[in-house]
Amino acid sequence: MTTMTRNNQDNSSNRASNVPATTAAKQPLPTAKTVDTQSVLKRLQSELMALMMSGDSGISAFPEDDNIFCWKGTITGSKDTVFEGTEYKLTLSFPTDYPFKPPKVKFETGVFHPNVDVYGNICLDILQDKWSSAYDVRTILLSIQSLLGEPNTSSPLNTQAAALWENQEEYRKMVQKLYKPSA
Amino acid sequence: MTLNAHSSVCNLSALDRLNKTSIAEIAESWNGFCFSTEALLNGNGNPSCGPDFAPHEIFEKNCASKFWQNFDAYSNVGAPELCNDSMQDDEVQQVLCKALREISLEKQYQEKCLSILVHALQSYKDSTLEGRLTSDVGRAYPVPKYQLIVSSVLMTSLPRHFPEVLHWYFKGKLEELSTKMAGEYDDISEAQEKDDMDLDENPTLAYSTRDMDLDGCHHQRTFLENNRLVKNIGVVVHDLRSLGFTSLTEDAYASAIFLLLKAKVHDLAGEDYRSSVLESVKGWIQAVPLQFLRALLAYLGDSVSYDSPSSSLKSPLASQSSACYPGNGTPSEGLVRWQLRLEYFAYETLQDLRIAKLFEIIVDYPDSSPAIDDLKRCLEYTGQHSKLVDSFISALRYRLLTAGASTNDILLQYVSTIKALRTIDPAGVFLEAVGEPIREYLKGRKDTIKCIVTMLTDGTSGNPNGPGNTGDSLLEELNRNEENQDSTGMEDDINTDDKQAWVDAERWEPDPVEADPLKGSRHRRKVDILGMIVGIIGSKDQLVNEYRVMLAEKLLNKTDYDINSEIRTLELLKIHFGENSMQKCEIMLNDLIDSKRINTNVKATIAQPSQNGAEVREHGVSLDMLDATIISSNFWPPIQEEALNIPEPVDQLLSDYAKRFGEIKTPRKLQWKKNLGTVKLELQFGDREMQFTVAPVHASIIMQFQDQISWTSINLATAIGVPVDVLNRRINFWISKGILADSLGDDSNDHIYTLVDSMVDAGKTGLNSGSCEDLVGDEDGERSVASVEDQLRKEMTVYEKFITGMLTNFGSMALDRIHNTLKMFCVADPSYDKSLQQLQSFLSGLVVEEKLELRDGMYFLKK
Q1: Residues 6+ apart with CB under 8 A from B36
Q2: What gap in Å lies between CA B265 and CA B182, rounded to an integer?
Q3: How many CA atoms lie within 13 A of B217 on its CB side?
């Protein structure tokens, strides 16, 4: 089920080793659960700032209408993948105890992908059991972007897509056929 | 018996013109008379129908046409070419007098005839029908009726030019009177007034009393002349009135008086704003037109023209004028009304005159304050403030708010406007309206903030050019406000937080319309010039920021540690903007103070020999010559970084200094900003020495020529460590001084710079030699601190990324939403503090750059 590019793995493992250690040192775990909203806000704000300033191409997200816990995201298919030239909208909703819990990420645009179901739910380990507070919006989006090009076909949510993955040419046609860009 | 009596009366009036026509007339009127008598006697049973006979027919035939004929020659008297002809004037006057006299006589004569007739009828009736009840009617009725008939006859046959004739007559007479009185008024106005009062009471008596109690005989004579003049006019007016021309006459002399008054006001006020003219205008009103009217009204018995002078009409001015003449009783009501009318007219005229020239008046404001005072008093009287606002705003738009006017001039005018209008309107209501266009315009100018800050801070430096002078006034203002605060303990508007402002706003009550501005101090808001200027910029933060940049620039270019004037300015600014906002500036000044101390400490360590001291001496530079400004860069505006290789010995000196600093101030380390500061250097060419104060880059350039006389630009740039284009720009300094010469190299892009031979350039640059040139910061490109614009641009790139981010995810957004979203989420370091307008202009910039698209008020990312 876990499918990630090497880059991101390096990135996350580096951070994962650092960040939890410091937070654990600062605060015992039980109190960390009831972390005040203010610090969540701060964290999300700084993530937004980092995301805006990073200038990664193909990924973007922004809080929706006054609510910083609810973001809209945009991912474009990477070059040299079957998803090239497509653009997908996502929603990210952050729990109040973020970053101790992962945000809920869903595709809003229908995507024909082995690890995404018809409702847009994504099967990605870092959004479930492998979540770490070292991840942020930017790494989540990058992970999803790379997931598009490198699906985990062994445990698919969309078996049809998983079956078709072998035939990249047909798959590309399928993606184009099912792609409905948002307005 | 009746016939005899009649003929005797007839003879009396007609004796002096017993020529042929007169006799014919007499005969004719006699016939008419006989005929009427006949008619009356025949209709004896009915006396009320008696007056139906038509004396007016005779009158019309005989007199009216003849009267009007007199003026036929002057039908074009109103034509401008004739107006100035005094001969014509005199003639008109004479003809008018004569004609009036004649027609009045005619009328009197007819009235007498009529009364005789009535008498005759009466006695006839008395004798025949004694005790008849209607007897009184017959007697009282015919005369007023006759008068009515006469005036209507004259009115219906009134030539159109007659009012003109009257107007010119009165104008001529008044001018005559005015010139006579003007001389008199100047020296003996007091005595005059007293005499006038005598005249007012009893014009005939005035003759005798004057003879007794007057000291000088000169104005006695002129007075008599004036009196005669007034009397002549009085006769004319009286005759005209008796003919039923009351309102016509009044119109004529009123318009003549107003015309004269207007001319007088224009004459007095003119183009001179340095003196107050209101008093002299008022004095003139007292001396000339009022005196004339007083005499005239007194002559006429002062009862005819003013139908309803109700007592309620007595304005404060009435009581005031009566207070002026104690012992003489109050002047007649009519006169008071005249005075009010005249003064109002004078005020209005002067006000219009001043308002039309308000722009000029404000341009030389401090000198023109008498004119402003005049205007203020006029406006208090007339209440036509809106006229002022409209006129001034259009003048501003036309003359000041144009591309040709420099920002400094506009600001200067703005400050003058504030000061001047503050005098006129302490509540600042009209100032608000007038200032609005200026503020709006200034907001559109890029250099506004810079100019304002320059004005604020450069006041004491005494610059010979414009900004310096402007600064003086602003700093004065700051100082004065400071003093005011000491005395009143009033809280400064800018300083109060929003909550306090809200409370104040809720407490506010409008001044009643008729409120006396003098008493309105309770409501009077403080018109704070600084506050209004900050209002142009929008927020004090921007101003403080700009000031910080300027201060940094100034401090970095200081060669000594003397910051007294800066401290003073800062203290003043602190009063207005609060300690907190000026904190960074204070730290900057403290850095300078600390630098001075550290510098001394570091130099104290020189006594201990350093390992490379000998080498340093070799080049003639030692630590003694080095003064460092140590800044806490966190609190300074971003410093312009520029790579620069400074000459080896100097570089060593710097690191030596840094080492010593490190020893004293462990654990702190000194990091040099090598491109900043100033270098005093001396160039020796054989027999000649030249001193310069230059930027480090200039010094580095010229030092390279110490060992090598000629450099190509590329090599030199490498040696100094700056880009070639920068070098080419900077080296111009030395070329302009005649120290270096520029010639094209092999490659067209490559220049060769050669040290000019000392012998050759001796004559050329003789002027410059020996003088200490201070050229630091003479080019805009040489600023040591990132300008506010640069900072703004940097901030805006952050916003651009945010905007791109939100548009990527939301597709399209309206301006408002972008603004609100930025406000909500862009809270980190340069937090979003722009106005909607600023954002809009920024967005339209992005549209021009084709990064965004604007359709139907929505912004899109350009794909």
Answers
A1: B53, B55, B117
A2: 14
A3: 0
Tell whether the torsion through CA atoms of B321, B323, B328 and B330 is positive or negative: positive
Q: Which residue has the tokens 């998983």?
A: A162
Show the CA angle centred on residue A80, arms to residues A78 and A82, nearest 5°. Answer: 80
Residues of A in contact with B828 (CB under 8 A): 45-46, 49
Sign of the CA dihedral running B838, B840, B843, B847: negative
Query: Which of A38, A51, A62 to mutate to test binding with chain B, by most B CBs within 10 Å of its CB?
Result: A62
Q: Which of B253, B354, B350, B360 is nearest to B299 (CA)?
A: B253
Assign 3-class secondary structure to B63-80: HHHHHHHHHHCCCCCCCH
Q: What is the SS3 string spanning B261-329?
A: HHHHHHHHHCCCCCCCCHHHHHHHHHHCHHHHHHHHHHHHCCCCCCCCCCHHHCCHHHHHHHHHCCCCC
Q: How confident is the model at residue A39 (pLDDT cuts 50, 70, 90)?
A: confident
pLDDT in tens, B232-278: 777 777 777 766 677 777 777 778 778 888 887 777 777 777 777 77
Residues B250 and B337 sit within 8 Å (Cβ to Cβ):
no
Q: What is the identity of the amino acid at B471? A: G
Tokens of B758: 């000392």
pLDDT tens per residue, range A53-74: 887 888 889 888 778 889 999 9
Please judge whether A49 and B828 are an interchain contact, meaning their C-beta atoms are less than 8 angstroms apart. yes
Cβ burial of B489 (10 Å; 0-12, 13-18, 19+) is: exposed
Asked whether residue B613 carries a pLDDT value surpassing 80, the answer given is no
Q: How many helices (H) and strands (E) does chain A have?
A: 6, 4
Q: Which of A52, A145, A182 to mutate to test the interface with B (most CBs of B within 10 A)?
A: A52
Spatial contact of A69 and A96, defined as CB atoms under 8 Å apart: yes
Q: Which residue of A has its CA nearest to B807?
A: A62
pTM of the model: 0.53
Q: What residues form DSSP beta bridges with B691?
A: B682
Nearest residue on chain B to A182, alpha-carbon basis: B811
Q: Is B175 exposed, middle or buried (0-12, 13-18, 19+ CB in 10 A)?
A: middle
Q: Is B232 helix (H, G, I), strand (E, B) or coil?
A: helix
Q: Which residues neighbour B176 within 8 Å (Cβ) at sequence distance 6 or greater?
A: B229
DSSP string across B467-534: HHHHHHHHHHHHHHHHHHHHHH-PPPTTTS-HHHHHHHHHH--PPPTT--TTTGGGTPPP--HHHHHH
Q: Is B771 helix (H, G, I), strand (E, B) or coil?
A: coil
Q: Does A43 contact chain B (CB < 8 Å)?
A: no
Token pair 């009177």 is found at: B177
pLDDT at B777 over 50: no
Token pair belonging to B365: 């404001």
- Beta bridge partner(s), residue B692: B681, B773
d(C-alpha B155, C-alpha B153), whole Å: 5
CA torsion B414-B418-B419-B420 (nearest 10°) is: 90
CA distances from B28 to B1, B8, B109, B858 (A): 21, 17, 14, 98
**Pair of tokens at residue B409:** 């001039």
Residue carrying structure tokens 């609810």: A70
A13-21's contacts with Cβ under 8 Å and 24+ in sequence apart are A15/A132, A15/A134, A15/A135, A16/A132, A16/A134, A18/A134, A19/A132, A19/A133, A19/A134, A20/A132, A20/A133, A20/A134
Name the one residue in this structure whose structure tokens are 């706003």: B505
What are phi and psi for residue A3, nearest 5 degrees?
Answer: -135, 115
Name B326's Cβ contacts closer than 8 Å, sequence gap at least 6: none
Q: What is the ipTM of this complex?
A: 0.77
With CA atoms as reference, report the closest residue to B36 among B110, B106, B109. B110
With b for 16 or more beta-carbon neighbours within 10 A and e for fewer, the A166-179 pattern comes to: eeeeebbebbeeeb
Phi (first) and psi of residue A148, to 5 degrees: -55, -45
Chain A's closest residue to B830, CA to CA, is A49
